[in-house]
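[job 4471] stage=fold_predict status=RUNNING
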Amino acid sequence: MPANAGFHDLSTPTQTGTFPGIPYHPTPNTLALITTLRRLNPTYIDVHQQPRLAILLSYALPSAKILLFLHNDPLTMRGLKTRFGRRLAVRRLHRVVCVSTYLRDRYMTGLTGPAPALLHNPLTLAELPPPATERAQSILFAGRIVADKGPDVFINACRVALERLPGWTATMMGGDRFGPRSPETPYVADMRRAAAAAGIEFLGPRPHGDILVAMARAAIVVIPSRWPEPFGLAALEAAASGAFIIATRQGGLPEAAGPAALYIEADNPAKLATAIITVAEMGDHRTSRAAAGPAWAKQFDTPVIAAALENLRTKV
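[job 4471] inference complete, writing structure tokens
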């Protein structure tokens, strides 16, 4: 197939947007998808997050090379929860690809033999706001306001830390869902009230661009996740922005944040408060250590990952 083509995700309502230069083919059901693919006769088919569909396509289009990309824990996905299902996918498909070592290790739970390929999520560094020359004395939480992300841990830690750090401020950005139109759930409302009581500015859901600007200005970005992050894009964005990161080691976060982070125990506000105070008082040492972040992020730059994807296809 001479050009890429996009297809409708069968699990979502029909989309209307397209990517420039990429033909888009809405397919309302699996039969329509298979019919369209047979007509287009692609060399490669990339399937994201749908193992059972990838297996089906391997039978329906035996001449195509099927690559399955996993962005979440495979042990929670239909078709991959059992060792049999994961073994079948590795054997039946041309490649199973995980976006972090953590996910690849999860995939191999109870298995021996060939492991999935590794291809990290990309970040287009050229599109990020330039880091501020002088960082504000601010502590930032930017992410979904759900229990898994630990916003309550951040609030409780900042309640203690801000009393010890005159001149410093703390800010929270995010909502229950991604994007600026996220609804005000009861949990978000609770966190908004708790943040106000702790002296934290709660900005709520914001456009992604606003979050990136805030990361480029903040001295410290905190990622206190409780759940195992499949990758940790927010951590990578914070590293690329030159902020000092305080994060847990949950899931793929260490892969994304690398040497730019101070790692702490999850679900422990007291230790997070101590870490915030320690990092805030580092001064120039904090700035020099945070400088490792942009260098670390270069390996995730979109052109680098695109070349790795092309190399992966060449090997297939």
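[job 4471] summary: Residues 9-15 have pLDDT under 50 and may be disordered.
[job 4471] exit 0
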